[in-house]
User: Fold these one by one.
Assistant:
Number 1:
Amino acid sequence: MKYNMKKLVIAISVAAFLSACCNEEKVPVYRQADRPVCDRVEDLLDRMTFEEKVLQLNQYIIGLNTNVNNIGEEIKDVPGGIGSVIYFSDNVELRNELQRKAMEETRLGIPVLFGFDVIHGFRTVYPIPLAQGCSWNPELVTELCSVAAREARLSGTDWTFAPMIDVSRDGRWGRVAECFGEDPYANSVMGVASVNGYQGDDLYNTDKVAACLKHFVGYGMSQGGRDYTATDISMQSMWDTYLPPYKACIEAGAETVMSAFNDINGVPATANHLFLTEILKEKWGHKGFVVSDWNAVEQLIPQGYAADRKEAALKAFTAGVEMDMKDNCYREYFEELLNEGKITERQVDEAVARILSLKFRLGLFEKPYTEPLPESERILTADAYAAAERLAEESMVLLKNDGILPLGNPGRIAVIGPMAKDKFNIVGSWRCHGNAKDAQSIYEGLEAEFGSPALNYAPGCDFDGTDRSGFALAKAAALKSDVIVLCLGEKSAWSGENASRSTLALPSIQEELAAELASTGKPMVLVLSNGRPLELNRLAPMADAVLEAWQPGMKGGSPVAGILSGRVNPSGKLCITFPWSTGQVPIFYNSRQSSRPDQGQYQEIPSGPMYEFGHGLSYSEFVYSDLKADSEDITKGRDFKVQVSVTNSSDRDGYETVLWYVTDPFCSVTRPVKELRHFEKKFIKAGATEIFTFDVNPEKDLAYVDSEGNPLLESGEYRISVNEQTLKFNLK
Ligand code: BGC
């Protein structure tokens, strides 16, 4: 019996071994989840025909495109072997239907990658990136991006075309709303925070999405704020200003990059070998892939860089664009280009490998389908709303306060203006699947805060136009109130792609309404919701306080009301300069020094900004003192610490953000007047003091980059400043 048992065990083991071997033969390597991704990619590539490979390099669209710039027919029929689609739907059935076609009706069953623009939330929309930049709270940005990733992935999207980290110094450009402001370091930190939130530690999780850095590179330098224009950017500015956020996000592991629409110094970004291959892939070692922007391959023709679609395909591909978004140029011409010897199969293999590798790491081969979940488990959950509200609170910037705020118990409030009851525009541009019905208006927030009997509402006027017929009612509401809350701003469609404006001023009808109300002599709080810095030199003097609420997404009403009542202590600081007048644009804090710093000013307007970068008021008083370094002796290759004490001398607890700037006053390449190199936000209890620290690594924090992209650190004087205080060092 004992002997028999042993024989049986051996027999079973041999059978198991044989069956494992046979299975191994039957299950191709690329289908084995436990094999390294590189082996799976190699195995799959070996099995693919040229045509199958080329399909992987194309992205089509599916669903109804709601982007007004790219509007089109609803598309349902897409070949199963396609590499990727832009997924305009949040209906998982549509995804699963196409995925089933890819998995079951194609020879190799390669899953499709579903991408979409999840810019500031999927369904729970939170503040626009420009507002996020003003929160100086990267942890919170990570939290919200991870909410967006979860909602997106559970709704069938694997890949977001975000973050946009195009430094922009021109508020006329509609897309300024999508970036984190005018500073390269702020865009780097917030970009990395977003990538971390979208991708997490492991993309294989079913609640994470791949990120896409866009638009590579220099798109934010659009001439005169007009979209899609050519850009002239010196290599020094590229290294100093436009490239750093991309480098930081690549180092943080961003999976993909989108090539930009702009021409860079004579070579369109989408066919620019220097940036797409030499810098991104060879110098920085990016292992992911580049997707072109919408129609950007074909647009090489109007840009004057390719004579036809075939040449456009050749130039974009050989420059380093692996995936052709929507144009179908790659699919149409690669066979011919191969036969003519203009591209090689090896080049195609390398490009396909990058795309397949992401699909494996996303777990799409094992989990190609999206499980249909009830809405309540997928979107608009209570924790998502709560996080969106917190970010909105922290991103709003109190620009002016003559002492009227917080209102405390204000008596009757006249709530006036086109933005007061608006639930559509306040959500912001690029709202993904955000729906106005889920949003909260400023009025609703005020109602919940102060009670509806305290409010007298009148719209006053529309966002634009010339109709003053509502002025009388608005004035009457003001006259029977103790304080006016005037809610002005921009339509959401005035921001975003192809939404440039020649002026940063609000339409004159809104300024006229403000003047009419100011004539009542009642105290007035101006609340603004917009997607760009505004020209406020006429409006701000009419108001006793000005709160910049930006486009806060779904939860804007409560944060505005909380700041007005005093329940919330404002803590946002500007990540972009508000000029005194549009004529000053571009105006930004980190420009290079002029040869005559005291001259060259405008003759008829102030030359400085109306509200500078970093400006933002609080209800607390913060006193900075004791700025010091831990060493007098500063040398290359040795880190040192700089600290400042910040005391909350008021009786209100509050958040303070310390912005640390570096100045290199004399250098072989002239440097900006000052450059942000570190920031930190802390909660400081009333009466308490907190120490803020900047751990300085000279090679990282003091060095600059030459026009070849090489870091250089010169000996000599450096200055580190916070607030009004400065420390001088001599670096040896
Ligand atoms: C925009 C991109 C966007 C793409 C796909 C383009 O028009 O420039 O930012 O990701 O469309 O929607």
Number 2:
Amino acid sequence: MGSRCAGINSARALPEAIATVKDPRASALPLPEKPLTAHRFLPRTPLTGRIRVPGDKSISHRSLMFGALAVGRSRISGLLEGEDVLSTATALRAMGARIEKDGDTWVVDGVGVGTLLQPQGALDMGNSGTSTRLLMGLVASHGITATFTGDASLSKRPMGRVIDPLSIMGASFTPSPGGTLPLVMEGLQPAVPMTYRLPVASAQVKSAVLLAGLNTPGTTTVIEPVPTRDHTERMLRGFGVDVRVEEIGGEKHISLTGPVDMTPCDITVPGDPSSAAFFAVAASVVPGSDLVIENVGLNPTRDGIFRVLKQMGANIDYLDEREVGGEPVADLRVRHAQLTGIEVDPDIAPSMIDEFPVLFVAAALAQGTTITSGLDELRVKESDRLTAMATALSLGGASVEEREDGLLIRGTGGKPLAGGGPVTTHLDHRIAMSMAVAGLASAAGVEIDSTEPIATSFPNFMALLEEASA
Ligand code: S3P
């Protein structure tokens, strides 16, 4: 993990505990809605040159969280400065960590496992499911009470999937109806260890339980029938935690024994494959493109989109394959190619769960039909991504049939989509960026109702698009 994750730096004095919150839901009122900024993404000249996408969102969240739990100072370079990650930083500061930017590096002075402080007000998670679910895991085994709030999109997303296991470990919850935010939770210290088999393929649920286990005496085990992104396991080891992974009967048993002491770590965050995917599809579908996307993380639990695009005939070369921050990384050279529709194997879904919206755009421009299935999880992301993309692509002129657990898309065979809109992004960054890519390969452009959500994961998306098609 990174370049330096060994010994403990000089420990600093731990701040005094702060008095408990009197009315934890008092500051949970929703903020007034901001006006939206619509934008039409027009057809473009080929995408060329070299670009570098921002740091991986999943790794960025975990860098801050694990840094906050170590005793001493961790340094992070390449952190994604998107709104979701900044929500994590703000919440961790409210629980005692010092997090500051020093030049290009983020510096985290942790409080140590077991000594998170009582936050004074509600923790505003914005749009970020990862912040919410992972931080709920942390709070669950600390003797503190926390209120979690979020925007309209996050407030619809199911939290029962983390409430259930964390309740077994001893935390108590007062959620909004349907198990949603705003919710108040009270951690239990010491919590109760357990073995938990994941009922859904979710790295967030896996991580929430493992993070609760960090301050729980005894062994906490998560059984993972279907592999999901493994950044938590890899990175916890970098912070000195003994994470054991056993393969039993085709399932992963992931265990750690708490309470643990975590040692600080210097981390270099690789580029986000989920962000690179928008440019990989854009360069594949805009004729004449020849684009290098530098420093893209290619963890095998995350690279499904590139494997599927290649199956569809995409021209993607991995250049200078190397390791950054303990993760496989390469520069991706992507050249325009005529894509062909395929039936996507549902087993690959967890390794590209966030990339389906942009894959649907690639499918809409392919030769022939693309069929996807097994994608029920897409209905509970930042929006219902099956309905949102079926509606948006149809408005843009594509032929899409929505099914219960996937989409069937008849491609144009490389002809530009008609274009149109405005399409509704539902506060979902990936719908916004996917439809932006659709606009590049359309005759009249595609208008999206709001560009604001893009900042949650890819603040310089528009600037990079300008740079690549200049
Ligand atoms: C994430 C896990 C995935 C993914 C999300 C980030 C993580 O969510 O969609 O963007 O960092 O653990 P699920 O665990 O709900 O599949």
Number 3:
Amino acid sequence: MQQKNMHSILLSLWFILIEGVIQLQASHYHWVVTEAPYTRLCGTKSILTVNGQFPGPTIYTHKGETVVVEVVNRSKHNITLHWHGVKQPRNPWSDGPEYITQCPIKPGGRFTQTVILSLEEGTLWWHAHNEWTRATVYGAIIIYPKPGTFYPFQKPDLEVPLLLGEWWKRDIFEIYEEFRATGGSPNVSDAYTINGQPGDLYPCSKAETFKVRVQYGKTILLRIINAAVNQILFLAIKNHSITLVGTDGEYTKPFTSDYITIAPGETMDVLVHANQLPGRYYMAARAYSSGINVDFDNTTTTAVIEYEGVNLNASSTLSLPYLPAYNDTNASYSFTSSLRSLASKDHPVNVPLKVNHRIFSTVSVNALPCPANRTCEGINGTRFAASMNNISFVLPDIDILQAYYYHIKGVYGKKFPKFPPLPFNYTAEFQDLALEVSKHSTQVRIFKFNSTIEIVLQGTNLVAGLDHPMHIHGQSFYVVGYGYGNFDKNNDPKNYNLVDPPLQNTVIVPRNGWATIRFKAHNPGVWYVHCHLERHVTWGMMTTLIVKDGKDPESQMLPPPPDMPPC
Ligand code: C2O
Ligand code: CU
């Protein structure tokens, strides 16, 4: 008890210290991480949750506000929580990724996290950020415009968060451990879910299928979040087109399409007009899986849009909307490359035109020799890995942020390369097997405050060419270009969009193609960069950027809160 008092005194001191820095019109949430039984697909299992809820609680806030979340871990597992897409200016301490910015909150532990919103507006989400705990520990963050300001589109009559997820019948910790032990691919999920429900097409699910009730003539704002563990998804609604108006907590030019492609990590705000014959219509999501011979969950999750006043007994059979084929890379690419920033007076674009640092990084799947006296289930008896610039990132035992702040040596190296160690024809059909082997290491890249950075992310055809949704913490970036094949440094930059590129926190690097992003590093801290497919994270497809403090106090990291979880 005494210890707890001491704790809260220190915390209030910390808040006084950082007050003025942030606007502490903070809403306060009290979250308990706990196991809870959930029944899906005809079976019950215990899952990790926040407050017993699945999906977890929604955070409602306004642009520029600060949210304080007091996290208490009453489960038997370690946990960390991350606020995906929230930039957390000067405050990497509450960002959440395990061993990057904190050590996990152990069973019985607690941590008060300060979530500082700044420019974000629209929909983001939060999720657990250690091992595969995010499979069940996730929820929406809804950020309304500042009071007195409005959406840059027609006000919707109805707003509905739509969280897409993945469900395994077996315990997710078992799936994860088995995956690590075998060196092969993980077991694919048994279902996709919409707001935690698989939907009509799965056994024992129909009664609980998620439904949106709407009046004819009204407009719905769907806040769609892909919280799936390992799968990019296509989503469509029978007979209704979808108008994208925002992504990743930023507005876009309205773009109307019959379907969307949404990768884990991405959020999309879309308008749907209930202008069809009053009735019941499926919305459906299923995999976009581009890798040849890559196993995936080939099932379809559904929810229902139901017009008010329709006779539910007149058993109209529902039919599925058209969805692109699971391997339709062109469908995915054409949707993704159509996103544009709103670029209006109130929502201007600020793409860096002058670049201080250029990085060219491969994103690859790798295959390593199996250690002696083990059997590995990767391709031809190898053990799978994944890398950026041929380094499979190894998580250290204490977090990089702490090591950086307190100058603890030997935790990480500063040599994440600006270029692949050995250039090759990245997207050729046949690859030299020797190139499949990556190095294991913990290497970061350090930048001066306010430098402008361009990163070309180059997919490769090593082991399997496939799409990678690459995500960066602590900043959003402009996606200035995309292409298939090898990036051509002489010609491709000529086609960069420097006028209205979308501002995102996650970008899909197309299968055997590339994407170029640009941003200004004006957020001092330690920021994780990783593929948002969890199996690739486990294999090492990630790195870390450190942005140094600037000269004046307003461009420096905040001091650490007093209750950082001990390592
Ligand atoms: Cu959705 Cu590292 O995060
Ligand atoms: Cu990946």
Number 4:
Amino acid sequence: MSGSDQASQDWIASTGEPIRGEIRVPGDKSVSHRAIMLGALADGVSEIDGFLEGEDTRATAAAFAAMGVRIEATGDGRRTVHGVGLHGLEAPAQAIDCGNAGTGMRLLAGLLAGQAFDSKLVGDASLSRRPMRRVTEPLARMGARIDTADGGVPPLRIHGNSALQGIEFNTPIASAQVKSAVLLAGLYARGTTEVREPHPTRDYTERMLSAMGWPIEFSPGFARLQGGGQLKPVRINVPADISSAAFFIVAATVVPGSDLLLRGVGLNPRRTGLLDALRAMGADISVLEPREEGGEPVGDLRIRSAALHGIEVPVELVPDMIDEFPALFVAAAAADGVTRVRGAAELRVKESDRIALMSTGLRSLGIRVEETPDGADIHGGLLQGGEIDSGGDHRIAMSFVVAAQLAKGPVRISDCANVATSFPGFMELATSAGLNVAPAGD
Ligand code: S3P
């Protein structure tokens, strides 16, 4: 059952303590999805450590189990994936439920387009509203046959036995999901598949393919591979997810007296836009012990509270912090002056319309926000208590928990069950670090 089908869960958050201590947030969602997918297609046994035990990534693991892949949970965050080889998947008996996960559905669409069997992908209420033509159109150019519902939304019906052909694809959208769907179909295609992006996006698919011995050329904004090969099994250490760390980074920055250490955070340069934006606003963030783990840059982040001022967020940072805007809006509300966000229209088609929900929510807490089609102007100010609709979006819910730490009264946040899609144990970890949040009593 996916989060949004569960009974709605409301939370109450209010001013807590300074944010202090040493914590590690759960594993990276993007890496965890890909580790299961590529591990399943490898010839042999892959080991994953630090796997995100969230609903989104577990849905991906369940999808491969339903296609005959043995995936053993050998401990918290540990999976042993008995890969079946590129052509070893079995037809699933039922529709595959991707839950809330856009990454799961879009990457699976590419991967399943190359199989010998038919399949159907479904999702929860939020995922069922999200645009899928961005993947089905390039995949159709490769020869895939995928039907969507009216309006280009899920469910996706994928017809097997399609002879795929490599393409040169200049994607109009800076999206790692689109790029990855095409590259995964490219594994099964004749000839060369090439993707060029308008702005570079996260390159985990490319890095993992390369680590698994698949010849691939890639550089920021570009990837090229040939179809027909083999994947070698690997050991994957999943770093802590910077998108989950983001809520603590902002909380420790805006709550006076804070001094927090976040351990083992993934610092892939395509993910660190929030750090750049916050530093430009005056944040005090240092990277301790920068290192490489499993081919990924990782470091411990020390965050001390600092006074922020508004900035114009550089448009080129947008893809590097695409999941961090809800948290950034909260930092902007706490900053002196105006923070201007532009070039971020993609936020309107995430798990919710994040520009609309963050703007409405902050306004109801007394902050002046002017929305534009691709961003907002957020005027820093004093936050009051109030009621927030999270729209069932995990990142909106967690962002308002952070905002509430500065509010003059309690903040009630509706529909928080989906926090478990990306951040199981958020409430406990947040409370241990000094934030004040609890389930709402009715
Ligand atoms: C992801 C890519 C991003 C991001 C999502 C995860 C991925 O989406 O928002 O949370 O794992 O490839 P887009 O590629 O659509 O921007």
